[in-house]
Queue: 3 jobs
Job 1
Amino acid sequence: MSEGFLIGFYQLSPYWHTNDINYAERQAYVNATLFFFTVPQHNQSLKHVVGWDNNDYQIDISTERGVEEYTRLINRWAQLDITSITFAPSNSNVSRRDQGTDDWGWESVLWMSLGEKIRLKQWKPYHDSIPPTVQYLLDYAATKQVKLVSYVYPPLGYRLNGQDQAWLIENPHCRNLCASLASVEFQHYFLQLLIDFAQVTDIGGYAWDYNYFFDTNHTIYSKWRSWQWILIQLLLALPHLIMDHRYGSQYDGPWSWITLNGYTSALLADENPETYPIRYPSLHTDKIAANFMLPGNRELRLEHFASMDSIPGFIGHQSERFSVYGGLP
């Protein structure tokens, strides 16, 4: 297998901020990355909200009260003209947090609360039914012209009837077994799983996280290239899917962002609400939004040579809600 490369020709122009790069050189680089965008970027703003910024992980949708609370969130988001949501509430009838295999303890909210079952091959698209409360919220969100986006961790130890030996590797970050993105077998399995799940649930897209390259037996490039292949093929199959990129994707650079169809990490740093008073001590949300957006856009544009189509802007966050015992959940 070989990789292509580009030879760029451009006419020298005045230098751009430093004596190392000139305007024409920078624009040639931007044009090169733009050419390889898998699908055209959106012609209007993408109004997306991340559910955990409203602490949706504390809402148990296995209960009537939890479903009612989540519908109120959907109603509010719809009033704000938000069209997609990274959906990650708990669902104690389907999954349990203590059964998760990731270091962060959130596998129970992945894949619309089906993450643990999908990893163990206990739930399969087109074979098993969608949990009733999940289906209800999918349908309810659709009546408000809102799409739910599934939260997914790619490198967990997905099983597949013995075939998983081609990609499972020993690693403590997935409770002993992680999946290697360098495995061709895993690439095809995971791509088909993503396509099938999206078609069965009619979700609006995927939110990627925890996508660390744990496999030390292969090069980082081989795993990065494999992940890019999965995203490209997924968008070619379902170009309407929104991509909410996390796991520090703001550091991956413009060649990773050709598969955005959404945005990279919007704050380019710690996304937790307690970050606010540390960096910008203000009670004015519009001022805080501008203070986050301007340096973020500057970094992407000036330091990473991102095209304007790759710049996400600012995604709002809310203050944390404490548990009844006064601590964080």
Note: Helices lie at 23-35, 64-79, 115-119, 132-143, 184-201, 220-237, 275-279, 285-303.
Job 2
Amino acid sequence: MAEVSELLTTFNEQVVFEIPKDCISNDPLVTERNTKLVKFYEEIAQNRYQRYHLIEAGAGKKKLTKSWENLQTKLKRARTYQQDVRQVGGKAVPIPAHFTDEV
């Protein structure tokens, strides 16, 4: 089995996120909601990492389909979280563009 460090180098996507400067607000409600959004992006990135390894391991179609559907559900929820930020007058942290692509 490959070492963890080897596995990490083969999956080359961002897994830690921060609130961009243009999305930072003095309003604590906006900050709280954007922080929640950033943490959720990290969760999505972790799911993408797991999906990558399912594909590499040759997982079955059923498992891969479930993994893909799970990612799509999380992306829909992320869009809802973005709306939550906008409803309180803030600028939402954008969804990373690569999240909509296959791993």
Note: The CA atoms of residues 51 and 57 lie 10 Å apart.
Job 3
Amino acid sequence: MVQLSFVSTAAALLLAALPLVAAAEPLQKPKQAAILGTFTSQGCFSTGQGLKKQKSVNGTENSSASCGAACLEQTKLVFAMTGDACYCGDKYPPEVDIIDDSKCTYKCKGNKKEACGSKSDKRYSVWNSGVKLDVEYAKKKTSSTKTVTKSATKTPTATKSSKSTKTSKSTKKTPSSTTTSQSETTTSDSVVSTSSSGNVPSSTSAAAQTSNTSGAVSRPMIGAGAAVLAAALVI
């Protein structure tokens, strides 16, 4: 009786421990070697770089089976799940983005015994679709920073504006000075021509009038002299 009681107690303890063993099994399946024609887990990744989301898979049915089938129809080499979303691609995400399997803890709604990444912080459960064994990892994208120098842009602008200002001023002054000298030359020419045309006839007319006057005065004097001479002879 004692022996039977001990066996019964041991059996009861073993049955009670079975759920704990099942619960301890990780949702995220560890990385496996790829097998043709079989879906094999490639681990948990922190990014889904290079993968494209598939709208054909319903979130309530998301699992490795449904997501893998959708990507296999497109002959895609890789598929992944994150939360209720399914992704397909031809390359694994960057190898440097592989993280510990314990980070992928979201239970797939289509199969609660496996992980569909992590919904809150976007972890991805990545799988090989079985189309090709040797699949490449995508190259990690790096961000580049561009430096813009403002002073280099301002300097040529200031030089051009100063040059154009000087040129415009000299151009405006040159024609005005030329015009002034030309007008002065024209004025002087008109003065010379006016004086020559007005003064010469006036001086000639005055000389003629003086000659006539002197002639008129000298004739009476000659007549008077002759009369005095004649009177002297008579005496």
Note: The first strand starts at residue 40 and ends at 45.
